[in-house]
């Protein structure tokens, strides 16, 4: 399998953390990707119409995009340990994945606003709206932090990658302020070998 990869992408990191936890990291050949909201990477586009990272090229040569789909494919290949099969545990993990992906979506939209648009075209209201999504979702995770514990599933992996991305690109947000339970959980989770191995360069 091949994976279009970018060290700074939190969604690529999510896939790589899952791959490390599943023992599949060495089965992925990493291909460089230069995805951009305006200037699309033709190499990725040749394999999937969304031209985004991560994009996986499977053993049959088919392109598969979206970290949620790729992570579940890898999990199925390795015997299904990161996606609970059924019941309340499954919906909990998927809901947490969705919420943490929402943090990343909002953060990337801010990032693109600040880096892909000329300063004269940037919208302060847009940035404020996306920041509000991040703040409210962090508050929700703080309220539910007791349920994170030592769990390892797609929900906690996605949350760990989201918090790591905030540290990387939005350190001025101070996401730990007023969220002691979430900060305590992340301090432990971020030391997992999979998280250390996939930590983006500063």
Q: Overview of this structure, please?
A:
The chain has 202 residues and is α+β, with helices and mostly antiparallel strands. The chain folds into 2 domains: 2-78, Glutaredoxin (3-Layer(aba) Sandwich), CATH 3.40.30; 87-197, Glutathione S-transferase Yfyf (Class Pi), Chain A, domain 2 (Up-down Bundle). It has 8 helices and 4 strands. A 4-stranded mixed beta sheet has the order 2-1-3-4, covered by helices on one side. The mean pLDDT is 95.
State the major sheet. 4 strands, mixed
Number of domains: 2
Succession of helices and strands: EHEHEEHHHHHH
Mean pLDDT: 95
- Would you identify the CATH architecture of the largest domain? Up-down Bundle
Number of strands: 4
- The CATH topology assignment of the largest domain is Glutathione S-transferase Yfyf (Class Pi), Chain A, domain 2
Could you give the distance between the termini?
28 Å
Q: Give the C-level CATH assignment of the largest domain.
A: Mainly Alpha
Low-confidence segments, ≥5 residues, pLDDT <50?
A: none
Rg from Cα: 17 Å
Overall shape: it is globular
- Main β-sheet, spatial strand arrangement: 2-1-3-4
Number of helices: 8
Strand pairing plus helix content: what structural class? alpha+beta
Q: What is the share of helical residues?
A: 40-55%
Strand content: 5-15%
Summary keywords:
202 residues; alpha+beta; Glutaredoxin; Glutathione S-transferase Yfyf (Class Pi), Chain A, domain 2; 2 domains; 4-stranded mixed β-sheet; 8 helices; globular
Quickly describe the structure.
With 202 residues, this protein is of the alpha+beta class.
């Amino acid at each position: 399998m091949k994976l279009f990869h970018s060290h700074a992408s939190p969604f690529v990191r999510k896939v790589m953390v899952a791959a490390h936890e599943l023992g599949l990291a060495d089965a992925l050949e990493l291909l460089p990707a230069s995805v951009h909201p305006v200037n699309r990477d033709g190499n990725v586009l040749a394999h999937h119409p969304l031209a985004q990272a991560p994009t996986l090229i499977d053993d049959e040569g088919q392109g598969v995009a979206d970290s949620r789909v790729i992570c579940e494919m890898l999990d199925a290949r390795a015997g299904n340990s990161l996606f609970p099969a059924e019941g309340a545990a499954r919906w909990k993990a998927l809901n947490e994945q969705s919420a943490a992906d929402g943090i990343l979506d909002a953060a990337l939209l801010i990032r693109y606003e600040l880096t892909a648009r000329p300063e004269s075209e940037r919208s302060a209201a847009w940035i404020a709206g996306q920041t509000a999504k991040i703040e409210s979702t962090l508050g929700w995770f703080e309220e539910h932090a007791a349920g994170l514990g030592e769990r390892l599933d797609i929900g906690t992996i996605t949350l760990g990658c989201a918090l790591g991305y905030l540290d990387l690109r939005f350190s001025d947000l101070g996401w730990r302020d007023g969220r002691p339970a979430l900060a305590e959980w992340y301090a432990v989770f971020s030391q997992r070998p999979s998280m250390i191995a996939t930590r983006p360069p500063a």
